């Protein structure tokens, strides 16, 4: 049996509105499997407890922009955006691939008035919501532990959503090129160094100059820099460059994913 005809979606309705059907479908699916959803909260929180608070008791303070802050206060904003990244990347990589390759979910969806752009926008939107939920829980933990030092931290959640959007778009685009689960080793190969070397645990100026320059243009570093700035109250216009980077990254990812899905789901 061939694939359904690929189309752009019902006329007269914006992709954003049609894409809500994809979000609703994912919400209903996760209501029946809460465990995989909830476990995504744990990793950044465990790192905060073991490294942020545990190691923080040994190393003392970290100098940031001319002032010294406790190590756990320094680490927490980085792990905060890692939580958002994890939530987004889980759905747009492994989650998407299972639905596409084995569940044939999108074949069924394209029989409806929804089109490939709706699938791309809907999946990325859901991933942003999931990343935002993870980030919200982490932010509440930071608040409870007294790790927030500025009223500018109200901007932390929008920062997390922006990080989730960037990685959701990139993750979905990358997943459309995956042929089997073996290929996801490349995703892990990219994510682990990003997690470890994006100034998450150490200030950028502690790295060798050549490595610091590389780190400064990586995607997670943009989110870490934004998050740390708003949580510590060091807000300035230069942060807009980080935000623009993440916005463009997400938009390009969605664009590529939409085009690739149009090719892959051809009859």
TrEMBL record:
Give start and end of each ABC transmembrane type-2 domain: 35-264
Entry keyword Transport = yes
* GO cellular component, as recorded: ATP-binding cassette (ABC) transporter complex
PANTHER family in the record: NODULATION PROTEIN J
Q: Name one Pfam family in it.
A: ABC2_membrane
Which stretches are transmembrane?
A: 41-62, 74-98, 119-145, 151-174, 186-204, 235-257
The opening ranks of the lineage are: Bacteria, Bacillati, Actinomycetota, Acidimicrobiia, Acidimicrobiales
Which named protein is this? Answer: Transport permease protein
Q: Which GO terms describe its molecular function?
A: ABC-type transporter activity
């Amino acid at each position: 049996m061939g694939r359904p005809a690929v189309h752009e979606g019902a006329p007269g309705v914006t992709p954003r509105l049609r894409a809500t059907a994809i979000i609703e479908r994912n919400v209903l699916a996760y209501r029946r499997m809460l465990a995989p959803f909830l476990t995504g909260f744990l990793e950044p929180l465990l790192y905060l407890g073991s490294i942020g608070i545990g190691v923080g008791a040994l190393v003392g303070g970290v100098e940031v922009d001319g002032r010294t802050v406790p190590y756990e206060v320094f680490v927490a904003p980085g792990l905060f955006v890692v939580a958002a990244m994890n939530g987004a990347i889980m759905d747009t990589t492994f989650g998407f691939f299972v639905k596409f390759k084995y569940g044939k979910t999108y074949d069924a969806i394209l029989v409806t008035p929804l089109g490939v752009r709706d699938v791309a926008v809907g999946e990325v939107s859901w991933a942003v919501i999931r990343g935002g939920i993870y980030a919200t829980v982490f932010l509440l933990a930071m608040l409870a532990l007294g790790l927030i030092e500025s009223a500018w931290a109200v901007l932390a959640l929008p920062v997390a959503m922006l990080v989730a959007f960037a990685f959701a778009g990139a993750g979905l685009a990358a997943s459309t090129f995956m042929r089997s689960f073996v290929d996801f080793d490349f995703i892990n190969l990219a994510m682990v160094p990003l997690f470890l070397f994006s100034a998450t645990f150490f200030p950028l100026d502690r790295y060798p100059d050549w490595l610091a320059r590389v780190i400064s243009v990586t995607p997670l570093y943009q989110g870490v820099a934004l998050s740390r700035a708003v949580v510590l109250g060091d807000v300035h216009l230069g942060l807009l460059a980080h935000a623009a980077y993440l916005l463009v990254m997400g938009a390009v990812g969605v664009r590529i994913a939409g085009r690739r899905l149009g090719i892959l789901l051809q009859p």
